[in-house]
Amino acid sequence: MSEAIEVRDLVVRRGKKTVLDGFSCVIPRGSVTGLLGPSGSGKTTLMRAVVGVQIVASGTVTVLGHPAGSTPLRRRIGYLTQAPSVYADLTVAENARYFASLYGLKAAAADEAVEAVGLTAARGQLVANLSGGQRSRASLACAIVSRPELLVLDEPTVGQDPVLRDELWDHFRRLAADGATVLVSSHVMDEANRCDRLLLIREGALIADDTPAGVKAAAGVDDLDQAFLNLIRRQEEEVAA
Amino acid sequence: MILASTIRRILGQLRHDPRTIGLIVVVPTLLITLIYFMYEGQPAVFDRVALTMLGVFPFIVMFLITSIAMLRERTTGTLERLFTTPVGKIDLLFGYGVAFGVAAAAQATVAAAFSYWALDMRTAGSIGLVILIAVANAVLGVALGLLCSAFARTEFQAVQFMPLVVAPQLLLCGLFVPRDEMAGWLQTISNVLPMSYSVEALTEVGVHAEPTGIMWRDLTVVVGSIVVALILGAATLRRRTA
């Protein structure tokens, strides 16, 4: 079985708004898939459904062969929420060690994860005293600490220094090369070029599902920003017609 | 294993917050000292009021810090993230129950020791039983705090549960008006509020040298209430949210 995530006819309502309306997609294993779309398009909701914390109205989400959110998956996935979800009144190392312990892992695994996000120098600092970018890296360390088979990252590179962003992407690519599946949301198009596949969503609907090159070819332009604009316009014309 | 590291994590959070530790340890002792001077020259009244307050203060403090701590888990997203990991609801609830129970034990021990030795409080029964009942009451505060935090979206709402949950129990526990002198319907309410039992248990320790059957029954009711509140708390914790 080669797909890591299979979403079928997913409907999610939050309050009165239907955020995802019959959404379907397949994400292959061992890939870095970028989830792109404007704020409010349903990226976070889709990620929450994949990690199994979102109440869904109908449809199915299958992750690594199991229904999303089922018990066996909890050891196999890592989730980075958009706002850094670490304990502000613990140090970076204490946070990483706590999350490591949930998987039965020792402090060494935690220290490795802290190093991978470039926070070794700040490991003894309270998260409350870190900068915004450092906080989100501390949060990332807790998501990768268990070396999950599926890593779901909600905007992991926001507010990061360009050099660091580059290093983080190298890290995601290495994880995928080792067989992990990475689903990462972003609204920075230059990052989209580093993905194996792209999913573009807008207003809860899938507009494109292809490689970056494929997206550009389909839109007939060489710039991803422009490509997405073309695809959205084309779709709107189809709907109008 | 997960429970143990969760307890360690919560105690670690406390450790990085020395001011909160100071408040936990010192505030009940200060308030009981205040009561001592209020009833100077009336040792019998002081004994009764201080003994009751040794049960009430830990309840209030633990209720407040637990409901805020749990609300923080919800609002900062750590709870959502924990629910994508192998953590069980029981690990979380008991993690808070045990960790704050340890803090409550320290608090009750300091307050009781100070009341006995510095303020000359006297009870017929032993200080050990007083501390035991005080800690049970504090853990009850933790359990109710965990439960109530589910119904609060913001800190503003969470703190308002304090008067709602604490005040009726304090007013009807028998400290201000003996329970058997209350109107029948007030007695009925008093009978279903768990703090009435912990106060009655403390009163029993105050007047009897040996632990009585009523005291053990009351303590059992308090422990039973803790279990019920934790089960209800587990029911309000949802892995999936809208």
UniProtKB/TrEMBL annotation, chain A:
GO terms for molecular function: ATP binding; ATP hydrolysis activity. The keyword Nucleotide-binding applies. Residues 5-228 form the ABC transporter domain. SUPFAM superfamilies: P-loop containing nucleoside triphosphate hydrolases (SSF52540). Gene3D superfamilies: P-loop containing nucleotide triphosphate hydrolases. The keyword Cytoplasm does not apply. Keywords: ATP-binding, Nucleotide-binding. It comes from the Bacteria. Pfam families: ABC_tran (PF00005). This is ABC-2 type transport system ATP-binding protein. InterPro entries: AAA+_ATPase (IPR003593), ABC_transporter-like_ATP-bd (IPR003439), ABC_transporter-like_CS (IPR017871), P-loop_NTPase (IPR027417).
UniProtKB/TrEMBL annotation, chain B:
InterPro entries: ABC-2_transporter_component, ABC2_TM, ABC2_TM_bact-type, ABC_2_transport. The keyword Transport applies. It holds the Pfam family ABC2_membrane. GO terms for cellular component: ATP-binding cassette (ABC) transporter complex. The keyword NAD does not apply. It is found in: Cell membrane. GO terms for molecular function: ABC-type transporter activity. One of its GO terms (biological process) is response to antibiotic. The chain crosses the membrane at residues 21-39, 51-71, 92-118, 124-147, 159-177, 219-237. It is a multi-pass membrane protein. Residues 11-240 form the ABC transmembrane type-2 domain. Keywords: Antibiotic resistance, Cell membrane, Membrane, Transmembrane, Transmembrane helix, Transport. PANTHER family: MEMBRANE COMPONENT OF ABC TRANSPORTER YHHJ-RELATED (PTHR30294), TRANSPORT PERMEASE PROTEIN (PTHR30294:SF38). Belongs to the ABC-2 integral membrane protein family. This is Transport permease protein. It comes from Actinoplanes campanulatus.
